[in-house]
Amino acid sequence: MPEITHGDTKSYCRGVAMGASDVETWFVREVLPLEALLMQYLRHHWPEKSQIEDLRQDVYVRICEFAQKEIPDPAKPFILATARNLIIDRLRREQIVPIEIIADIDLLGLAADTPGPERSTVARDELRRLQAALDSLPPRCREAVALGKIDGLSGREIATRMAVSEATVSEHIDKGMCVLADVLYGEFSVFGKTP
Amino acid sequence: MTQAIHEEPVPTDAASVNASAAAWLRRRQFWDWTEEDQVGLDAWLAESAAHRVAFWRLNAAWSRTDRLAALRRETGETVVGQSKKRFRLIAAAAIALAIVTVAGAGFWFLRPAEKTYITALGGKQAIMFADGSKVELNTNTALRVNFRQRMVWLDRGEAYFQIKHDSRHPFVVMAGSGRVTDIGTRFVVRRDPSRLKVALVEGQAQFDRLNVSSETPKSLLPGDVVIATPTSTTLLRESAKDLSSELGWRKGVLVFEHATLLDAATEFNRYNSEKIIVADAAAAHLTINGTFRTNDVDAFADAAHGVFGLRVETRNGEAIISR
Protein backbone atom coordinates (compact mmCIF):
# COMPACT_ATOMS: atom_id res chain seq x y z
CA MET A 1 0.00 0.00 0.00
CA PRO A 2 1.47 3.36 -0.89
CA GLU A 3 2.21 5.48 2.13
CA ILE A 4 0.19 8.64 2.07
CA THR A 5 1.71 11.60 3.76
CA HIS A 6 0.36 15.04 4.26
CA GLY A 7 3.39 16.26 2.37
CA ASP A 8 1.76 15.32 -0.91
CA THR A 9 -0.77 18.10 -0.49
CA LYS A 10 2.02 20.64 -0.10
CA SER A 11 2.83 20.92 -3.78
CA TYR A 12 -0.64 22.30 -4.54
CA CYS A 13 -0.25 25.20 -2.19
CA ARG A 14 0.82 28.64 -3.17
CA GLY A 15 -0.08 32.06 -1.97
CA VAL A 16 0.04 33.90 1.31
CA ALA A 17 -1.64 33.76 4.70
CA MET A 18 -5.26 34.85 4.57
CA GLY A 19 -7.81 36.40 6.92
CA ALA A 20 -11.12 34.77 7.78
CA SER A 21 -13.09 36.69 5.14
CA ASP A 22 -10.58 35.70 2.44
CA VAL A 23 -10.95 32.08 3.47
CA GLU A 24 -14.71 32.45 3.26
CA THR A 25 -14.46 34.01 -0.21
CA TRP A 26 -12.18 31.23 -1.37
CA PHE A 27 -14.39 28.57 0.23
CA VAL A 28 -17.52 29.88 -1.48
CA ARG A 29 -15.90 30.48 -4.85
CA GLU A 30 -13.56 27.51 -5.19
CA VAL A 31 -14.63 24.79 -2.76
CA LEU A 32 -18.44 24.78 -2.70
CA PRO A 33 -18.77 24.35 -6.49
CA LEU A 34 -16.83 21.08 -6.04
CA GLU A 35 -19.10 19.77 -3.29
CA ALA A 36 -20.96 17.43 -5.66
CA LEU A 37 -17.64 15.89 -6.64
CA LEU A 38 -16.56 15.61 -3.02
CA MET A 39 -19.86 13.97 -2.05
CA GLN A 40 -19.52 11.50 -4.89
CA TYR A 41 -16.02 10.68 -3.73
CA LEU A 42 -17.10 10.24 -0.11
CA ARG A 43 -20.12 8.11 -1.00
CA HIS A 44 -17.93 5.97 -3.15
CA HIS A 45 -15.28 5.38 -0.51
CA TRP A 46 -17.17 5.33 2.74
CA PRO A 47 -19.56 2.48 3.43
CA GLU A 48 -21.72 4.15 6.07
CA LYS A 49 -24.06 6.58 4.26
CA SER A 50 -25.33 8.15 7.47
CA GLN A 51 -21.82 9.47 8.20
CA ILE A 52 -21.26 11.21 4.87
CA GLU A 53 -22.46 14.58 6.10
CA ASP A 54 -20.07 14.41 9.06
CA LEU A 55 -17.21 13.46 6.79
CA ARG A 56 -17.97 16.36 4.47
CA GLN A 57 -17.92 18.72 7.42
CA ASP A 58 -14.58 17.33 8.62
CA VAL A 59 -13.08 17.75 5.15
CA TYR A 60 -14.26 21.38 5.08
CA VAL A 61 -12.88 22.03 8.55
CA ARG A 62 -9.50 20.62 7.59
CA ILE A 63 -9.15 22.55 4.37
CA CYS A 64 -10.34 25.81 5.93
CA GLU A 65 -7.96 25.47 8.86
CA PHE A 66 -5.22 24.92 6.36
CA ALA A 67 -6.37 27.80 4.17
CA GLN A 68 -5.94 30.21 7.07
CA LYS A 69 -2.21 29.74 6.55
CA GLU A 70 -2.20 29.64 2.79
CA ILE A 71 -4.86 29.29 0.14
CA PRO A 72 -4.48 25.98 -1.71
CA ASP A 73 -4.46 26.54 -5.44
CA PRO A 74 -5.87 24.75 -7.33
CA ALA A 75 -8.55 23.64 -4.91
CA LYS A 76 -9.71 20.36 -6.43
CA PRO A 77 -6.68 18.09 -5.90
CA PHE A 78 -6.29 19.53 -2.43
CA ILE A 79 -9.91 18.79 -1.49
CA LEU A 80 -9.71 15.24 -2.79
CA ALA A 81 -6.36 14.61 -1.11
CA THR A 82 -7.81 15.91 2.15
CA ALA A 83 -10.85 13.66 1.76
CA ARG A 84 -8.63 10.69 1.07
CA ASN A 85 -6.40 11.40 4.07
CA LEU A 86 -9.42 11.84 6.29
CA ILE A 87 -10.92 8.55 5.18
CA ILE A 88 -7.62 6.77 5.76
CA ASP A 89 -7.30 8.33 9.23
CA ARG A 90 -10.84 7.25 10.06
CA LEU A 91 -10.35 3.74 8.79
CA ARG A 92 -7.14 3.34 10.75
CA ARG A 93 -8.67 4.74 13.90
CA GLU A 94 -11.90 2.84 13.76
CA GLN A 95 -10.30 -0.34 12.42
CA ILE A 96 -13.57 -1.39 10.90
CA VAL A 97 -12.37 -2.02 7.39
CA PRO A 98 -9.67 -4.41 6.21
CA ILE A 99 -6.48 -2.81 5.01
CA GLU A 100 -7.05 -3.82 1.37
CA ILE A 101 -9.79 -1.26 1.03
CA ILE A 102 -7.34 1.47 1.86
CA ALA A 103 -5.17 0.46 -1.05
CA ASP A 104 -8.24 0.43 -3.24
CA ILE A 105 -9.08 3.97 -2.23
CA ASP A 106 -5.90 5.23 -3.74
CA LEU A 107 -6.72 3.69 -7.08
CA LEU A 108 -10.18 5.16 -7.03
CA GLY A 109 -8.69 8.48 -6.07
CA LEU A 110 -7.33 8.74 -9.58
CA ALA A 111 -10.74 8.10 -11.07
CA ALA A 112 -12.23 10.88 -8.96
CA ASP A 113 -9.85 13.35 -10.52
CA THR A 114 -11.94 13.58 -13.68
CA PRO A 115 -13.29 17.06 -14.34
CA GLY A 116 -16.50 18.14 -12.66
CA PRO A 117 -19.27 20.09 -14.38
CA GLU A 118 -17.78 23.16 -16.00
CA ARG A 119 -18.64 26.48 -14.44
CA SER A 120 -20.26 27.72 -17.63
CA THR A 121 -22.65 24.79 -17.64
CA VAL A 122 -23.56 25.50 -14.06
CA ALA A 123 -24.06 29.18 -14.79
CA ARG A 124 -26.18 28.49 -17.84
CA ASP A 125 -28.49 26.28 -15.86
CA GLU A 126 -28.50 28.46 -12.78
CA LEU A 127 -32.07 29.65 -12.84
CA ARG A 128 -33.51 26.25 -13.67
CA ARG A 129 -31.34 24.77 -10.99
CA LEU A 130 -32.59 27.27 -8.43
CA GLN A 131 -36.13 26.55 -9.50
CA ALA A 132 -35.51 22.81 -9.15
CA ALA A 133 -33.94 23.34 -5.74
CA LEU A 134 -36.96 25.33 -4.61
CA ASP A 135 -39.29 22.68 -5.98
CA SER A 136 -37.45 20.01 -4.04
CA LEU A 137 -38.64 21.54 -0.76
CA PRO A 138 -41.79 20.27 0.94
CA PRO A 139 -44.79 22.47 -0.02
CA ARG A 140 -45.17 24.51 3.20
CA CYS A 141 -41.43 24.87 3.53
CA ARG A 142 -41.26 26.03 -0.07
CA GLU A 143 -44.02 28.55 0.52
CA ALA A 144 -42.20 30.03 3.53
CA VAL A 145 -38.92 30.24 1.62
CA ALA A 146 -40.62 31.80 -1.41
CA LEU A 147 -42.41 34.41 0.70
CA GLY A 148 -39.11 35.35 2.30
CA LYS A 149 -36.94 35.07 -0.76
CA ILE A 150 -39.11 36.23 -3.64
CA ASP A 151 -41.47 38.56 -1.82
CA GLY A 152 -38.96 39.79 0.72
CA LEU A 153 -41.27 39.37 3.70
CA SER A 154 -39.98 39.31 7.27
CA GLY A 155 -40.41 36.28 9.54
CA ARG A 156 -43.41 37.85 11.21
CA GLU A 157 -45.05 38.71 7.91
CA ILE A 158 -44.53 35.15 6.65
CA ALA A 159 -46.16 33.81 9.83
CA THR A 160 -49.15 36.10 9.32
CA ARG A 161 -49.42 35.28 5.65
CA MET A 162 -49.27 31.52 6.20
CA ALA A 163 -51.38 31.72 9.37
CA VAL A 164 -48.88 29.69 11.36
CA SER A 165 -46.74 30.47 14.41
CA GLU A 166 -43.36 32.17 14.11
CA ALA A 167 -41.76 28.99 15.46
CA THR A 168 -43.26 27.01 12.58
CA VAL A 169 -41.96 29.57 10.09
CA SER A 170 -38.53 29.19 11.68
CA GLU A 171 -38.66 25.42 11.26
CA HIS A 172 -39.63 25.73 7.60
CA ILE A 173 -36.95 28.30 6.86
CA ASP A 174 -34.18 26.40 8.67
CA LYS A 175 -35.04 23.21 6.86
CA GLY A 176 -35.29 25.09 3.58
CA MET A 177 -31.84 26.59 4.04
CA CYS A 178 -30.26 23.19 4.71
CA VAL A 179 -32.01 21.45 1.82
CA LEU A 180 -31.21 24.29 -0.60
CA ALA A 181 -27.52 24.04 0.26
CA ASP A 182 -27.55 20.26 -0.22
CA VAL A 183 -29.33 20.50 -3.55
CA LEU A 184 -27.38 23.47 -4.88
CA TYR A 185 -23.95 22.23 -3.87
CA GLY A 186 -24.14 18.56 -2.99
CA GLU A 187 -25.83 17.18 -6.07
CA PHE A 188 -24.80 17.27 -9.68
CA SER A 189 -27.19 19.31 -11.70
CA VAL A 190 -29.94 17.25 -13.26
CA PHE A 191 -29.71 19.68 -16.15
CA GLY A 192 -25.96 19.81 -16.47
CA LYS A 193 -23.64 17.13 -17.76
CA THR A 194 -22.72 14.39 -15.38
CA PRO A 195 -18.97 14.13 -15.12
CA MET B 1 -0.62 20.73 6.83
CA THR B 2 0.69 19.62 10.17
CA GLN B 3 -0.37 16.33 11.57
CA ALA B 4 -0.78 17.72 15.08
CA ILE B 5 -3.68 20.03 14.27
CA HIS B 6 -5.75 17.39 12.55
CA GLU B 7 -4.99 14.29 14.57
CA GLU B 8 -8.18 14.57 16.61
CA PRO B 9 -10.85 16.60 14.89
CA VAL B 10 -13.37 17.84 17.45
CA PRO B 11 -16.28 15.41 17.22
CA THR B 12 -19.22 17.58 16.26
CA ASP B 13 -22.24 16.17 14.59
CA ALA B 14 -22.76 17.88 11.25
CA ALA B 15 -26.54 17.82 11.41
CA SER B 16 -26.71 19.79 14.65
CA VAL B 17 -24.02 22.26 13.57
CA ASN B 18 -26.00 22.80 10.36
CA ALA B 19 -29.19 23.32 12.33
CA SER B 20 -27.52 25.98 14.50
CA ALA B 21 -26.02 27.68 11.46
CA ALA B 22 -29.44 27.76 9.79
CA ALA B 23 -31.00 29.24 12.93
CA TRP B 24 -28.43 32.07 13.01
CA LEU B 25 -28.87 32.77 9.32
CA ARG B 26 -32.65 32.75 9.58
CA ARG B 27 -32.65 35.09 12.56
CA ARG B 28 -30.32 37.49 10.80
CA GLN B 29 -32.41 37.37 7.66
CA PHE B 30 -35.95 37.42 8.92
CA TRP B 31 -36.07 38.71 12.47
CA ASP B 32 -34.93 41.85 14.25
CA TRP B 33 -31.18 41.76 14.29
CA THR B 34 -29.37 43.76 16.95
CA GLU B 35 -25.75 44.49 17.73
CA GLU B 36 -25.99 41.91 20.54
CA ASP B 37 -27.17 39.29 18.05
CA GLN B 38 -24.20 40.09 15.85
CA VAL B 39 -21.87 39.71 18.83
CA GLY B 40 -23.50 36.35 19.58
CA LEU B 41 -23.08 35.19 15.99
CA ASP B 42 -19.46 36.34 15.87
CA ALA B 43 -18.74 34.41 19.06
CA TRP B 44 -20.44 31.30 17.71
CA LEU B 45 -18.43 31.54 14.49
CA ALA B 46 -15.21 32.04 16.42
CA GLU B 47 -15.90 28.89 18.45
CA SER B 48 -14.95 26.41 15.76
CA ALA B 49 -14.07 26.01 12.11
CA ALA B 50 -17.02 23.60 11.82
CA HIS B 51 -19.36 26.45 12.75
CA ARG B 52 -17.74 28.74 10.22
CA VAL B 53 -17.84 26.37 7.26
CA ALA B 54 -21.44 25.38 8.00
CA PHE B 55 -22.50 29.03 8.17
CA TRP B 56 -20.54 30.04 5.06
CA ARG B 57 -22.03 27.16 3.14
CA LEU B 58 -25.66 27.85 4.08
CA ASN B 59 -25.18 31.58 3.60
CA ALA B 60 -23.69 31.03 0.14
CA ALA B 61 -26.55 28.75 -0.94
CA TRP B 62 -29.12 31.15 0.49
CA SER B 63 -27.56 34.17 -1.23
CA ARG B 64 -27.40 32.23 -4.46
CA THR B 65 -31.17 31.93 -4.50
CA ASP B 66 -31.38 35.75 -4.41
CA ARG B 67 -31.63 35.52 -8.17
CA LEU B 68 -35.11 34.10 -7.78
CA ALA B 69 -36.19 37.46 -6.38
CA ALA B 70 -35.36 39.02 -9.73
CA LEU B 71 -38.43 37.25 -11.03
CA ARG B 72 -40.64 39.27 -8.76
CA ARG B 73 -42.78 41.72 -10.63
CA GLU B 74 -42.05 45.36 -9.91
CA THR B 75 -45.61 46.13 -8.85
CA GLY B 76 -44.85 45.25 -5.26
CA GLU B 77 -47.69 42.78 -5.43
CA THR B 78 -47.17 39.97 -2.98
CA VAL B 79 -47.55 36.25 -3.21
CA VAL B 80 -50.67 35.78 -1.08
CA GLY B 81 -52.60 32.78 -2.33
CA GLN B 82 -50.67 32.91 -5.55
CA SER B 83 -47.63 30.81 -4.94
CA LYS B 84 -48.70 28.29 -7.56
CA LYS B 85 -49.07 31.03 -10.10
CA ARG B 86 -45.76 32.47 -9.05
CA PHE B 87 -44.03 29.15 -9.47
CA ARG B 88 -45.56 28.74 -12.87
CA LEU B 89 -44.18 32.19 -13.64
CA ILE B 90 -40.75 31.09 -12.47
CA ALA B 91 -40.98 27.95 -14.56
CA ALA B 92 -42.01 29.96 -17.59
CA ALA B 93 -39.19 32.40 -17.01
CA ALA B 94 -36.76 29.53 -16.57
CA ILE B 95 -37.84 27.95 -19.82
CA ALA B 96 -37.69 31.27 -21.63
CA LEU B 97 -34.26 31.84 -20.18
CA ALA B 98 -33.12 28.38 -21.22
CA ILE B 99 -34.19 29.14 -24.79
CA VAL B 100 -32.38 32.44 -24.74
CA THR B 101 -29.23 30.91 -23.29
CA VAL B 102 -29.12 28.24 -25.96
CA ALA B 103 -28.72 31.15 -28.35
CA GLY B 104 -26.06 32.83 -26.26
CA ALA B 105 -24.43 31.37 -23.18
CA GLY B 106 -22.96 34.78 -22.39
CA PHE B 107 -26.37 36.07 -21.43
CA TRP B 108 -25.87 35.42 -17.75
CA PHE B 109 -22.78 37.53 -17.68
CA LEU B 110 -24.44 40.42 -19.46
CA ARG B 111 -27.61 40.44 -17.39
CA PRO B 112 -28.29 43.61 -15.48
CA ALA B 113 -26.64 43.35 -12.07
CA GLU B 114 -29.17 45.67 -10.49
CA LYS B 115 -31.69 44.51 -7.92
CA THR B 116 -34.60 46.33 -6.32
CA TYR B 117 -35.59 45.95 -2.69
CA ILE B 118 -38.85 47.33 -1.35
CA THR B 119 -40.15 47.30 2.19
CA ALA B 120 -43.80 47.83 3.06
CA LEU B 121 -45.17 50.20 5.69
CA GLY B 122 -43.72 48.99 9.00
CA GLY B 123 -41.43 46.55 7.18
CA LYS B 124 -37.71 46.04 7.51
CA GLN B 125 -35.14 44.11 5.53
CA ALA B 126 -31.42 43.44 5.63
CA ILE B 127 -29.27 42.90 2.54
CA MET B 128 -25.94 41.17 2.93
CA PHE B 129 -23.07 41.68 0.52
CA ALA B 130 -20.56 38.96 -0.22
CA ASP B 131 -17.81 41.00 1.44
CA GLY B 132 -19.75 41.25 4.72
CA SER B 133 -21.14 44.72 4.07
CA LYS B 134 -24.73 45.07 5.16
CA VAL B 135 -27.59 47.41 4.34
CA GLU B 136 -30.71 47.56 6.51
CA LEU B 137 -33.88 49.00 5.04
CA ASN B 138 -36.37 50.79 7.26
CA THR B 139 -40.14 51.12 6.72
CA ASN B 140 -41.56 52.08 3.33
CA THR B 141 -38.24 52.11 1.55
CA ALA B 142 -37.18 51.48 -2.02
CA LEU B 143 -33.55 50.76 -2.77
CA ARG B 144 -31.77 49.58 -5.89
CA VAL B 145 -28.45 47.82 -5.62
CA ASN B 146 -25.72 47.14 -8.13
CA PHE B 147 -23.60 44.61 -6.29
CA ARG B 148 -20.87 44.58 -8.90
CA GLN B 149 -20.33 48.34 -8.89
CA ARG B 150 -20.97 48.66 -5.14
CA MET B 151 -23.59 51.30 -5.88
CA VAL B 152 -26.93 51.85 -4.23
CA TRP B 153 -29.82 54.16 -5.13
CA LEU B 154 -32.12 55.14 -2.31
CA ASP B 155 -35.33 55.99 -4.15
CA ARG B 156 -37.32 56.62 -0.99
CA GLY B 157 -37.24 55.91 2.72
CA GLU B 158 -34.32 55.17 4.99
CA ALA B 159 -31.43 52.74 5.16
CA TYR B 160 -28.52 52.02 7.46
CA PHE B 161 -25.23 51.07 5.87
CA GLN B 162 -22.41 49.06 7.41
CA ILE B 163 -19.76 48.99 4.75
CA LYS B 164 -16.56 46.99 4.60
CA HIS B 165 -13.67 49.04 3.32
CA ASP B 166 -12.42 48.31 -0.17
CA SER B 167 -9.93 50.93 -1.34
CA ARG B 168 -10.31 49.96 -4.98
CA HIS B 169 -14.10 50.00 -4.96
CA PRO B 170 -15.61 52.75 -2.84
CA PHE B 171 -19.22 52.22 -1.90
CA VAL B 172 -21.54 54.88 -3.29
CA VAL B 173 -25.06 55.74 -2.17
CA MET B 174 -27.13 57.95 -4.47
CA ALA B 175 -30.20 59.63 -3.01
CA GLY B 176 -31.72 62.00 -5.51
CA SER B 177 -28.99 64.49 -6.28
CA GLY B 178 -27.12 63.65 -3.08
CA ARG B 179 -24.20 61.30 -3.14
CA VAL B 180 -22.46 59.63 -0.22
CA THR B 181 -19.11 58.08 -1.01
CA ASP B 182 -18.04 55.80 1.74
CA ILE B 183 -14.61 55.00 2.99
CA GLY B 184 -15.38 52.00 5.23
CA THR B 185 -18.02 53.09 7.66
CA ARG B 186 -21.48 53.02 9.23
CA PHE B 187 -24.03 55.62 8.31
CA VAL B 188 -27.73 56.19 7.88
CA VAL B 189 -29.43 57.89 4.95
CA ARG B 190 -33.02 59.05 5.04
CA ARG B 191 -34.79 60.42 2.01
CA ASP B 192 -38.07 62.26 2.51
CA PRO B 193 -39.87 63.97 -0.36
CA SER B 194 -38.17 67.34 0.16
CA ARG B 195 -35.32 66.55 2.48
CA LEU B 196 -32.29 64.28 2.55
CA LYS B 197 -30.52 63.47 5.79
CA VAL B 198 -27.21 61.65 6.15
CA ALA B 199 -25.78 60.82 9.58
CA LEU B 200 -22.36 59.25 9.99
CA VAL B 201 -22.04 56.89 12.94
CA GLU B 202 -18.53 55.59 12.43
CA GLY B 203 -15.63 55.87 10.03
CA GLN B 204 -15.32 58.37 7.22
CA ALA B 205 -17.40 59.36 4.24
CA GLN B 206 -17.84 62.13 1.76
CA PHE B 207 -21.04 63.89 0.76
CA ASP B 208 -21.67 65.92 -2.36
CA ARG B 209 -24.52 66.95 -4.61
CA LEU B 210 -24.44 66.26 -8.28
CA ASN B 211 -26.64 69.22 -9.26
CA VAL B 212 -24.83 71.88 -7.24
CA SER B 213 -21.44 72.22 -8.88
CA SER B 214 -20.38 75.18 -6.72
CA GLU B 215 -20.44 73.09 -3.56
CA THR B 216 -17.26 71.37 -2.54
CA PRO B 217 -17.64 67.79 -1.31
CA LYS B 218 -18.03 67.61 2.46
CA SER B 219 -15.92 65.20 4.46
CA LEU B 220 -17.99 63.64 7.20
CA LEU B 221 -16.74 62.53 10.60
CA PRO B 222 -18.59 60.45 13.17
CA GLY B 223 -21.53 62.39 14.57
CA ASP B 224 -21.86 64.59 11.50
CA VAL B 225 -25.33 65.08 10.11
CA VAL B 226 -25.99 66.54 6.67
CA ILE B 227 -29.41 67.90 5.88
CA ALA B 228 -29.96 68.70 2.24
CA THR B 229 -33.06 70.40 0.88
CA PRO B 230 -33.59 71.55 -2.71
CA THR B 231 -32.16 74.94 -1.76
CA SER B 232 -29.60 74.30 0.96
CA THR B 233 -27.07 71.91 2.43
CA THR B 234 -26.40 72.10 6.17
CA LEU B 235 -23.78 70.27 8.17
CA LEU B 236 -24.50 69.70 11.88
CA ARG B 237 -22.05 68.26 14.36
CA GLU B 238 -23.55 66.05 17.03
CA SER B 239 -21.75 63.59 19.23
CA ALA B 240 -21.94 60.11 17.78
CA LYS B 241 -23.80 59.04 20.93
CA ASP B 242 -26.69 61.35 20.14
CA LEU B 243 -27.23 59.51 16.90
CA SER B 244 -28.73 56.59 18.81
CA SER B 245 -32.16 58.13 18.44
CA GLU B 246 -31.67 58.08 14.66
CA LEU B 247 -31.02 54.37 14.75
CA GLY B 248 -33.73 53.14 17.12
CA TRP B 249 -35.69 51.74 14.18
CA ARG B 250 -33.06 49.08 13.69
CA LYS B 251 -34.24 47.64 16.99
CA GLY B 252 -37.87 48.33 16.21
CA VAL B 253 -38.20 51.39 18.43
CA LEU B 254 -38.65 55.13 18.07
CA VAL B 255 -36.58 57.24 20.43
CA PHE B 256 -37.83 60.75 21.15
CA GLU B 257 -35.75 63.35 22.97
CA HIS B 258 -37.46 66.70 23.30
CA ALA B 259 -39.49 65.95 20.21
CA THR B 260 -42.71 67.83 19.64
CA LEU B 261 -45.87 65.79 19.71
CA LEU B 262 -46.36 66.64 16.04
CA ASP B 263 -42.91 65.40 15.04
CA ALA B 264 -43.39 62.24 17.08
CA ALA B 265 -46.75 61.60 15.44
CA THR B 266 -45.18 62.14 12.01
CA GLU B 267 -42.50 59.58 12.87
CA PHE B 268 -45.12 57.03 13.97
CA ASN B 269 -47.03 57.59 10.76
CA ARG B 270 -44.03 56.44 8.73
CA TYR B 271 -44.50 52.97 10.16
CA ASN B 272 -48.21 52.40 10.57
CA SER B 273 -51.33 52.46 8.47
CA GLU B 274 -53.25 53.68 11.54
CA LYS B 275 -52.30 57.35 11.38
CA ILE B 276 -51.97 59.67 14.34
CA ILE B 277 -53.48 63.09 13.77
CA VAL B 278 -52.65 65.91 16.17
CA ALA B 279 -55.72 68.09 15.81
CA ASP B 280 -54.78 70.85 18.21
CA ALA B 281 -52.08 73.42 17.44
CA ALA B 282 -51.06 73.95 21.07
CA ALA B 283 -50.91 70.24 21.76
CA ALA B 284 -48.74 69.79 18.68
CA HIS B 285 -45.97 71.80 20.30
CA LEU B 286 -45.83 69.89 23.57
CA THR B 287 -42.48 68.14 23.82
CA ILE B 288 -42.00 64.54 24.80
CA ASN B 289 -39.22 62.12 25.68
CA GLY B 290 -39.56 58.40 25.43
CA THR B 291 -39.01 55.16 23.61
CA PHE B 292 -41.85 53.40 21.84
CA ARG B 293 -42.13 50.36 19.66
CA THR B 294 -42.58 51.56 16.08
CA ASN B 295 -45.93 49.75 15.75
CA ASP B 296 -47.32 50.63 19.19
CA VAL B 297 -49.65 53.49 18.36
CA ASP B 298 -51.70 52.65 21.45
CA ALA B 299 -48.76 53.20 23.80
CA PHE B 300 -48.24 56.61 22.25
CA ALA B 301 -51.92 57.48 22.53
CA ASP B 302 -51.92 56.32 26.16
CA ALA B 303 -48.93 58.56 26.89
CA ALA B 304 -50.61 61.54 25.24
CA HIS B 305 -53.67 60.91 27.34
CA GLY B 306 -51.96 59.93 30.59
CA VAL B 307 -49.14 62.51 30.59
CA PHE B 308 -50.75 65.50 28.94
CA GLY B 309 -54.41 64.76 29.63
CA LEU B 310 -55.19 64.98 25.93
CA ARG B 311 -58.21 63.36 24.35
CA VAL B 312 -57.61 60.44 22.03
CA GLU B 313 -60.35 59.29 19.70
CA THR B 314 -60.01 56.43 17.28
CA ARG B 315 -62.11 56.51 14.16
CA ASN B 316 -61.70 55.37 10.56
CA GLY B 317 -58.29 53.92 11.31
CA GLU B 318 -57.02 57.23 12.66
CA ALA B 319 -56.05 58.15 16.20
CA ILE B 320 -57.04 61.77 16.66
CA ILE B 321 -55.36 63.63 19.49
CA SER B 322 -56.99 66.83 20.74
CA ARG B 323 -57.62 68.75 23.92
Description:
Chain A has 195 residues and is an all-alpha fold. Chain A is built from ten helices and no strands. Residues 1-17, 96-124 and 190-195 of chain A have low confidence and may be disordered. Chain B is an alpha+beta fold. In chain B, strands 1, 2, 3, 4, 5, 6, 7, 8, 9, 10, 11, 12 and 13 form a 13-stranded mixed β-sheet that branches. A three-stranded mixed β-sheet of chain B has the order 15-18-17. Chain B has a two-stranded antiparallel sheet with strand order 14-16. In chain B, a hairpin with an 8-residue loop joins strand 10 (205-209) and strand 11. In chain B, helix 2 crosses helix 4. The termini of chain B are far apart. Classes of the chains: A mainly alpha (195), B alpha+beta (323). At the A-B interface, helix 1, helix 3, helix 6, helix 7 and helix 8 of A face helix 1, helix 2, helix 4, helix 5 and helix 6 of B.
Structure summarized in a few sentences:
Chain A has 195 residues and is mainly α. In chain A, 66% of the residues lie in helices and 0% in strands. Chain A starts with 19 loop residues before the first helix and ends in a 9-residue tail after the last helix.
Main attributes of the structure:
heterodimer, A: 195 residues, mainly alpha, 10 helices, 66% helix, disordered N terminus, B: 323 residues, alpha+beta, Jelly Rolls, Phage tail protein beta-alpha-beta fold, 3 domains, 13-stranded mixed β-sheet, 18 strands
Would you spell out the secondary-structure blueprint of this structure?
The complex is a heterodimer of chains A (195) and B (323).
Chain A lengths: L19 H12 L3 H11 L6 H16 L7 H20 L4 H13 L7 H6 L1 H10 L3 H11 L5 H8 L3 H21 L9
Chain B lengths: L2 H4 L7 H17 L4 H13 L1 H16 L1 H4 L13 H21 L3 H4 L3 E5 L6 E4 L5 E4 L4 E5 L4 E12 L8 E5 L2 E5 L3 E7 L2 E8 L2 E5 L8 E3 L3 E5 L4 E5 L15 E8 H9 L5 E4 L2 H4 L2 E7 L3 H12 L2 E5 L2 E5 L1
Parallel strand pairs in B: 5-6, 15-18
Antiparallel strand pairs in B: 1-4, 2-3, 3-5, 4-5, 5-8, 6-7, 7-10, 8-9, 9-12, 10-11, 12-13, 14-16, 17-18
